[in-house]
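USER:
I would value a second opinion on how I read folds in token form. Give me a protein, with the fold worked out from its sequence. Write it directly below this note and I will take it from there.

ASSISTANT:
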Amino acid sequence: MLWLTDLNDINLMQWNTISNTWEVALNYPTEQYAWFDLEREVTHLAVPFAALGISDPASSALQLIALASDEGAMRLWATMPDGNPLNSPRVANPLLADGAANRPFTLTRAFSWASFGAGACPSENTGVGADVRIQLTATPESVVYSFLNDSLFYIQDALFGDQTIDTSLVGFLNPVRRPVGVGQPITYTVSYANAGTRVARDVRVTVIAWEPLTLPDGEQRTDATLGTFYQQTLTLGDLAPGAQGTAQIRALVEPASDATLDRASLDVIIYDAAAATRTPLVPLEWIWSDHVIDRAGPTNMQITQARRFVRPEQILFEGTVSDPAGVQSVTLEQRTAMGPAGSNTCLDPNPDDGLWACPAETSGLPNGTEVGVRVRCTDQFGQVSDWTEWVTMTVDITPPQVDVLPESVNILGTGVLGAGEFAVSGVVNDDRQAASAEVCRATVGATGEPICTEVPVVNNASAGTWQYILTTPEDIDGLAEQMTITGIDTAGNRSAPITYTYQLDSIAPGITITSQLERIALSDYQNPDPNNPPPPVLSGTANDRTGISTVDVLVTLPSGAIITIIAEYDGRSGWRFFPRASVLEGAGTYLLRVRAGM
């Protein structure tokens, strides 16, 4: 190994097979064997044959490779010739390069001389300056990965040790792809270009398809070690700088193939003219494509939306299913005690979501009829799942009955609901199974849709209790509202509705005092003269949108006791307060407070 550290430190190193270390074989006299073109940033090195142990150059072979590495570690970021794996974070995925820093790998390409006779040139010089770039895509899409371009140096042994590898090793390069089916055609597209400055000579692509994948335009071959495979060659020829194009490869997943084979794998190997001079051939790049083959129907079929009781109508069944290729259709089969009762097949509009839905028809069936339903799914390749277990449902056409508890009737029957929350409770009765109560509220006279809430019953039996919390909003003054309550059973049958009309009023009545007496004689109010009555102690007005039924005066007596005296009131002339002498304590100071209510 010729190690160039800087312009004044060049050493020829030799590997010691005993100590497994590099040792200095020759400290370079730079003035004799090295010269530098600083303006062009080019270093020229000459290596004496004797330093390499070559005594007869004309009959000696030699290989040469130049490496550029990070400081302090053998992390390669460039080689001459190119086409070798690189493991430096400068050029490889930094996460992979760091995690696989100590993984050994083999360099694949080098300059070579068969001998050092007159006019000898490195064989790899035929490709210097060319930069052949190849990409592979598949329809349908596949997992595609390449040795050099994807920096897979750390799994070199796995890549070249078998026809297929565990694609989880390269899963970071590709998202999950849809599988292919038995008998499905696959089209591969090879895109190529020469991004270099010189002609790429004699470029060709060898394509190998492993069972059960076949190549209709290729040739079937059998190898004692590799087994049976198909091979096809694409001859691209000489590619001038800037040349580019595409070529397509037809493939087919063989229907008669071994049912245990679950992978359709394709190898693409790219060569140039320099490869022909090496034994064995050394490609420019290796690319692999893998499809998973789906050989089974959907699994994990479940019916998740099934009811015990149904109305005689179209019933939507829903459920879950698993299939990597996606579900194409769902078949729903029905039966009664009389035998088969029809089937229905539904296309799945979202094949990959793991959900299915399909209706069953129970129209015309009499009350109490038991109907069994089971389901199976078909995937995109026509493969069918097993049937689910039978799910039994009973036709129910009898509506439930809804009742409101007496205490709730009292609340709704007052006519006016003030501020706060009110619990409205009741019972739904059904001959089979009660489900819920639907409570709808609408403003009287409004044109909009009512606001409805479905309240589940507490126990799903033939009788179930329910409760709805009615809240009076703030700043509501006499809003007329209608509440409609309907019972619902588990089949969806609805009871006759119960309706209540009331007013919501969260704003207190307005009350004013228009006149008051600060001093009075109690004798004037003990036996008043009807022809000359005494004036009211207090009088005023009261108003509210929902109406006022009474005006009360709270009287605090001189002793501190509080009594209530009803004032005279009519909605037109207002209210007036006359004290009743019989309940007063005599002379003293009285505190009067007025309130109005319904």
Notes: The mean pLDDT is 86.
